[in-house]
Automatic annotation (TrEMBL):
Region listing for Disordered, in residue ranges: 105-127
Polar residues: compositionally biased ranges: 105-124
Signal peptide start and end residues: 1-31
UniProt entry keywords in alphabetical sequence: Signal
GO molecular function: thiamine binding; thiamine pyrophosphate binding
Xref: PROSITE patterns: PROKAR_LIPOPROTEIN
Protein name listed in UniProt: Extracellular solute-binding protein
GO CC aspect terms: outer membrane-bounded periplasmic space
Organism of origin: Mycolicibacterium vaccae ATCC 25954
A Gene Ontology biological process term: thiamine transport
Length: 385
């Protein structure tokens, strides 16, 4: 469940998330490491430098890209839990469609863990080919990304992509509180979490200095305490109070901890929390209506990807109609949702299941995220340590 994938991770709607593009302004080394490998000048049989390709046209079109990716034969992904944004089905569909083996490492890792792995394994065949990151970590490490424009690039709203395709938002959702009604009283608002009935029961999905889900969770709490995207301090103070009350549970939640009852209250993305309802009928998900926080994850190619063609084909798949519908099936809002809904390519059944929030929605800008991240780095450990 970690998101951020932000969770250490790693993320009800009768219509597509009411998040108009104008409102959503963007805002471990392996013990026996394989030999180092330099793909910076690797070329396909047709002479294409896959690591420098900025579109499928550099391969002569999609057929050429597919051929080059199949020749590589593998793709390394990281921090993609199977039950997070439907990545389990997405990985299987990609692998079966193209006959490419997908190596999924550290599924419960955080966004920062992804970057750390890329740095530690740079030049090795085990390094991540692609990233799926929370905003703060993505924007702080964009120099590590390779620019690439998928075929549907023009269909992605301007607010959700770098002009050169260095990063592109892939899916989004709302921050929420999930809780097991068989273990705790129903949560109706954030302040309920301070009550003695929740002693030792409130978990946050990850460390907010490293994981996007946890960062957004602290922001949601900050809004409930009079804070804002410009002032996350009240959120940190609230978690300090949770700690003092004995209610904060310093455990990274997973589907297993939820099913076992170890983490009966979890602050995480709505789609990650909602995924638990199929296994645990008593699990309920609340998106606080007056403190709605929305966010998108950032998709990027590692510029030092050991499988540069497969990395680019993965991007093409994720932003295709097929990939976007698979995201939607996982309860997230795919970045092309509005345009796909308009042209009839968004699956109506999954679109109807996406959550709707009526009211103000907070989406921090990159500048607000940077300032809040700095505050968290300086104050979070002291508050909950």
């Amino acid at each position: 469940m970690n998101t951020s994938r932000n969770t250490p991770g790693h993320k009800p709607m009768s219509r597509v998330l009411a998040l108009a593009a104008s409102a959503l302004l963007v805002g471990g080394a392996v013990a026996c490491a394989p030999p180092e490998k330099d793909n910076s000048n690797a070329q396909t049989e047709s002479g294409v430098n896959a690591a420098a390709a900025t579109s499928a046209q550099d391969f002569g079109g999609m057929d050429g890209l597919i051929e080059a990716a199949k020749a590589e034969g593998e793709l390394n992904v990281i921090a993609l839990p199977p039950d997070w944004a439907n990545y389990g089905e997405i990985i299987t569909a990609f692998s079966e469609k193209y006959g490419i083996k997908v190596n999924s490492a550290q599924p419960d890792a955080s966004s920062q863990d992804e970057i750390n792995a890329a740095n530690q394994q740079k030049g090795r065949s085990t390094a991540p080919d692609v990233f799926d990151l929370g905003q703060s970590v993505a924007l702080a490490n964009s120099a590590m990304f390779a620019p690439y424009k998928v075929e549907t690039f023009d269909d992605i709203p301007v607010a959700f992509k770098d002009p050169d395709g260095t990063w592109v938002n892939d899916y989004g959702g709302y921050m929420s509180i999930g809780f097991d009604t068989s273990k705790v009283p129903p949560v109706t608002r954030v302040d309920d979490l301070l009550k003695p009935e929740y002693r030792g029961k409130v978990a946050l999905n990850g460390d907010p200095t490293q994981a996007g889900a946890a960062f957004s969770g602290v922001l949601m709490v900050a809004l409930s305490q009079g804070g804002s995207a410009d002032d996350i301090a009240p959120g940190v103070e609230f978690f300090g109070k949770l700690k003092q009350a004995g209610n904060f549970l310093p455990v990274d939640p997973t589907p297993a901890t939820i099913e076992s009852g170890q983490t009966p209250v979890v602050i995480d993305w709505n789609y990650t929390n909602s995924a638990q309802t199929a296994k645990l009928p008593s699990w309920t998900v609340l998106v606080p209506p007056d403190q709605a926080v929305a966010g998108y994850y950032y998709q990027a190619i590692n510029k030092d990807a050991p499988h540069p063609a497969a990395a680019r084909l993965w991007q093409e798949f994720l932003y295709s109609d097929e990939g976007q519908n698979l995201y939607a099936k996982g309860g997230v809002r795919p970045v092309r949702a509005d345009n796909m809904l308009a042209d009839g390519t968004l699956d109506s059944a999954v679109a109807a299941a996406l959550p709707v929030v009526d009211g103000p929605v907070t989406v921090p800008t990159p500048e607000q995220t940077e300032a809040a991240s700095k505050y968290l780095a300086e104050n979070w450990a002291a508050a909950v340590g």
